[in-house]
Structure formats: structure tokens, C-alpha cells
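Two records follow; treat each independently.
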Amino acid sequence: MQFHNFKTADNILAGIEVSMTTFIPIDDYCKVVGGLIVGKSANAEDDLNNASPHGIIGPRSEYFRVDGTKFFNFNFNNAAVFGDCSHCWHPASTDQGARTISTINLTIDSSVTKRVLWQYPFRGIIWDMDGTLTGLGADSWVTHYYPHLLQDECTLDDDVYNGLICDNTIALRSIAFSSYSPDHFDNMDEYIA
């Protein structure tokens, strides 16, 4: 599934939202290519004045890429270019929730003030393949802030990225345990110290 050259503007929730991708381990199997997404145009209706839309909300599954997409006018309320974990509003909607979105060849206009606004469960990961999202060069990362993730390679930028941006000397990965026994910790948040 690929969205080629989609143009969206003035959306209350998101320009493009992908809820689920098929589990096919090819990083660009499901992607947005060459899109143009405008947060708020001169033609916007009044309802948008109270909204905080996302340009793209990524899925609650792996293997989703955004390639060659342009973003403009995300400079009002809490509007942001990216969100994550579509339809993850409650704990039963997903597993651990740490999904990776990959990005490459983005154009983000200076009118954009917030690039990422994470959604529940606040565990997303964005792999910036060429540095066009973070400005930190190829293979840089964005994720929500948790104290254990604030390492020397990362900087907290809550205003623009709603979390951490990290350079290419590290890699962020989701960790999941399955088929463990005993299973009395099923469906519980687990923390690693």
C-alpha cells in the first residue's frame, strides 16, 4: 500500500493517517511518497482554529515510511508534522506500542513550528534516514522523552520534537518479549532498570 503524490490541506485530525500495515518485513512496503501536506491554508474553515492536527499519523504496526513529502503551515496550536500509533487511545488497542516510522527526503518549511507530537502510549520511534527531519544527519532518531533515554548522544527538545533527538552514534529499537512463562505479567507495563 503506497500513497503517491497525495495533497491534503486543512484537516482537523490528520492529512494522512495509517492505522495498520501488513507485517511484511520490508521497510518501505507501506509508505507515503511525494506528498504535499498543508496544516492550515488561507482557505481554512473556522473549525480548524481550535484543532491541533498532524500532517501524518503513523500506524500501530511496523514497516511504514514517509519519502519525499513536503509539509507547510503547521504553526498553530499543537499542530505537528508527525504523530504515531494511530487509534492507540487506550491500553487494549496495541501491545507495547513502540513502533518505528522511517523518513527520507522530507521538505519541512520554516512555517512548521512543531515537527512531532507523540500520542498514547508515547513510545514511538522515528528513524530519520537522511537527516531531513532532525538536521542531525543520516541515521538520526526522534523518540518521546524518558529519563533513561537521555544519553550523551541525545538532546531534549520538547518544543519542536516533543521529546529527544539523537545522532547516528546510537540506534533506537523496540524490545518485545513473547511466549514467556510464567505469564502472570501479561498485559502489564514492564520497566527495565
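The next record belongs to a different protein.
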Amino acid sequence: MGSDWDIIGKEGLQFFGKMSASISHEIKNVLAIINENAGLLEDFTLMAEKGRPIDLERFKAIAGKIRGQVGRADGIVKNLNRFAHSADHFSGEIDLNESLGFVVALSERFAAMADVSIERMEDGRTVPLNTTPFILHNLLWLYLNFAIEVVNEDKKVHLLVEKMEDGARIRFSNLRSIEKIPEDLFPSQKEKALMNALGAQISLDEGAGELILFLPDGVGH
């Protein structure tokens, strides 16, 4: 088990670094858009100073774009804050549906770069689970990243959380050719180490093109 924790520590740092870099990139994009629109407002101001009429509708539209980007930045920073605090406590109760949605939000940029959309099929019910949040987020990211790589030709990864008597499971479906995945490719040692820490198990439905991750309740308690 000691070697598993060595892997978990290394993978955790890489996960933290990758997500932090992605989030900071998104923030930079927002700032660039705000800066561009602020420049347009300055141009309008200079035009007004020279006595030229201001197009108030365009002025309002630019101000609206800035407000929209400020709202977008607020959401990004909230995700960063939540991500940082996910390592505060080794274990605790989470809502698996909500946690999966959080990881999906963190992964949106990576999915967009691969031209993949992530579709969650849920009924809005809470799925409580006692687990280790940061390790769970790390594992969900690895599963989701893998699903993005092997998604079907329509480029849509389907996700479904299901409550079970002794825990919960997540279905990653609409995947292609998963029966051809070499055993040493996925799950690799890093996924196996994280699953061991959570007491998780994986099953593969080749016919349905589906990976199923089972997560027991009560890990770390």
C-alpha cells in the first residue's frame, strides 16, 4: 500500500498543477476579453471628446459584455477556490452528482480542445457518499479524460450516476472499441492506486461501450 500512496501523492500534485494551469488560462482569456472591450469604451470616450456622437446601443452592448465576463470570472474563481479546499479534509460526505458536475466543469476546456461534449443524464436527486473528496476528484478526472480519448464518433461522452445500497456507481458510456483497450493501458497504475485508496472497482461492458466505476460508501471513516 505504501507504493500506492507514493503514486497517489505524485498523481495528486500533477492533477493539482494541471487543473490550476487550466483555470489560470481561463482567467487570462477572460481578462483579455475585458481588456479588449475596455479599449473599445476608451475609443468611444475619445470620439465623444472630439464631438462625435456616441452609439449608445453599442456602448451598452460593450458594457454588457464586460459584465458577462466578470460573471464568468467569478464562476471560474469559485471553482478554483473549491478545488483548492477539496484537499482540506481527508474524508467527508459529498453529493456524487454534484461532485461529478464539478469535475466536468473543471474538464470543460480539455473536452472543448478535443471537440467533445459531455452529457450528464440525471434526475436531480442527491447521491450522498462518504469518501475522500480530493482523491475522488482526481480519479473522476482520469476516467473522464480517458473517456474523452475513446469517445464514439459523435463526440459525446454520456455520464450517469446511480445510487446503490452500499455506495454508488458512475457509467461512462458512448465509448468506442473499448474491448480493444490493452489491460495495461487503462486502468493504469495511477488509476489502480486511486481506486485502491477509495475501495473502488471498475467493470467494462464491451457491447454497450461503457465503463462503470463503483464507489463504496464510508471510505476513510
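Discussion point: The longest strand covers residues 156-164. How would you locate this feature using only the C-alpha cell line?
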